[in-house]
Amino acid sequence: MFRTTLLASGMALALLAAGPAVAQDKPPVKIAAIVPQSGAGAFDGQLALEGMQAEAALVNAAGGILGGRKIELVVYDDKGTPEEGVSAARRAMEQDKVDMIVGGWFSAVALSMKEVTRDKIISVMTSSQHPDVTAKGHKFLFRLNATSNMMSSKYGQEICARIKPKSVAFITINDDFGRLEVDNYTKLLGACNVEIKGNEFYNRNDTDFTVALTKLKSLNPDAIYVSAINTSQGATIYRQARQAGFRGTLIASAGNMNPKLIELAGPALEGVYSISLYAPDSDNAKLKAWTEQYGKTFKNQPAFIGTLGAQAVQVLAAAADKAGTANDPDKIAAALRSQTWPTLLGEIKFEENGQALQNLYLIRVEGGKIVSIK
Amino acid sequence: MDWTLLGQQLANGVVNGMNYVLISTGLTLVFGVLRVINFAHGEFYMLGAFLTYFAMSALGIGYLPAVLLATVAVGALGILVNRLFFWPLRKEHEFTVLLSSLGLALLVTHGAELGFGHDPKYLNSPFTDDILEVGTIVLTQQRVLIFAAAVLVLAATYAAIRWTTFGRMMRATAQNPEGAALTGVDIRFVHTITFVLACGLAGLAGALVGPVAMIFPTVGSWAVLKGFIVVILGGLGSVPGALVGGLTLGVVEALAGGYVSLGFMEAIGYAIIILVLLWRPQGLFGSVAR
């Protein structure tokens, strides 16, 4: 009796072990997903990872890549800090032997992580906007998001041509990014005769902006340009601008419009413009498939940062297929540079330094939804 | 000189100042009576805001009942905190107590990140977006509510300390705990109630100020920082000091932010700490509780 039980359980075990082995006769392609899972960027990291997971599920459901290999995402927490990002990239390469890396959601993380991955492994940097990520990148580094300069030159044109304020005042964060924004738009908007009425810098930890907004409102500008990366600060600024009695146009900085912001800022965000790579109402079939898959698995509203994660998986899967390998970075890099790729955000092409050229859409919040202005 | 702008900035400053007063009163009370520097004070502010949020979304009750509920709940939490942390540590060195409170703050913040999620939330008060125009000055009803509630609560606290038996027990404990115990004051009871009062005040502040901005688990560190600037300015342990200190900080920030530079606003708080510690270390009001 004992022997038969043992035999039976042994057979059951063998069956269990054999089950997945049959399905996975080919090893998975391992992609490291290095995202912030704790700290201030944790929520953005969650949205980004969900985007990647939804896309990987789509690719796998369609039979995987390279003749039936599945994509496996290996997840690391970079805590939004350069040190942890570097350590995660090391672990991914040395211990887990991943084939490719997706990370670099924040510029500071991307800038230090690229030194560890330099000329060793295909690294796709995602939402970071600092020019140096690609300007001082390496031969296997690619970056999806437009740089802040690329965004502002396009956005400047759109503001001049379509939003057409007579005068504008800025409220911007007191750091490199905020200063760059003010310089760029003072030049760009000055060139089309928009009067610049003033600028207020706020600090990273501020929670009340009434004083600044009172000051800006008293300058009586046609529009206020709000530069806020941090969603909770952004939402507070839009609300308090309306609470301070400002009734003019509000313009959100490029790439900083997302469903969470709409949820938090509520009616204050109605009619606010921004510019984005992601137009949720686009009729792109790949975007529709991804949005549907995302909605099936996750509770959150799909956000721009999630589409970037999905785009990273999409181009890596396609390029690996074209190169016929998942771990020869030379061949994959050559494949990535070789053609225009159709993705969920539209067609994308990589420059020689790895910078992606993407479509930018003028968007606006209407009826609590992000719509593109055609 | 644009008088409308000046009036508006003064109004902004006074209202923000009242936020600070509400936050720092509990902090100064705990120090004045128990000699405890409580770094976890901001966490009770955060909990006040989140409990209001969850009371509204989970129980479906209105904003004002939710504020009351959250205040009472955070106040009750004061009993637990005193029993588990501060009462057992009362004979330890001040630094031990201070470090423990820092540990408590981290524990609560990270617990909140796990329990409430990392994403910021908006505490929806019906008064936030309604504008009240007094002459040329624009204020939201929520800000007027904060101001009124702060005045009421502060007056009640001050009256309780000055004129009730329990207030006398508190002051006796502050002056000399052993002497008070010898004359029959229940020190443990005083400790408990002081914490209940302090935590409740912090919770109320969070519940009222929460809707003005967004709430997130680390919002307490902002609150405790402002609280400390105010109590150092006004004098650790002094309730009138917290009032004057809070209003001063609010108005100075608004005027400096409005007329010099906003980037400078944050620095002003720190500059005040340094100046006060250099020239008047006991704060503007010293300590009336002693």
From TrEMBL, chain A:
Keywords: Amino-acid transport, Signal, Transport
Leader sequence residues: 1-23
Domain of life: Bacteria
RNA-binding recorded as keyword: no
GO biological process: amino acid transport
Ranges where the Leucine-binding protein domain occurs: 28-369
Pfam families per record: Peripla_BP_6
Transmembrane segments: none
Similarity comment: family membership: Belongs to the leucine-binding protein family.
Name used for this protein in its record: Leucine-binding protein domain-containing protein
Species, as recorded: Prosthecodimorpha hirschii
Automatic annotation (TrEMBL), chain B:
InterPro entries reported in the protein's UniProt record: ABC_transp_permease (IPR001851), BCAA_transport_permease (IPR052157)
Subcellular location: Cell membrane
Keyword vocabulary terms for this entry: Amino-acid transport, Cell membrane, Membrane, Transmembrane, Transmembrane helix, Transport
Superkingdom to which the source organism belongs: Bacteria
Record GO biological process: amino acid transport
Main location: membrane
Membrane-protein topology: Multi-pass membrane protein
GO CC term (a single one): plasma membrane
Annotated TM spans: 20-37, 44-61, 67-85, 97-116, 144-161, 195-216, 228-252, 259-279
Coiled coil: none
GO molecular function, one term: transmembrane transporter activity
Key word Transmembrane present: yes
Protein family per UniProt: Belongs to the binding-protein-dependent transport system permease family. LivHM subfamily.
Identification of the protein by name: ABC transporter permease
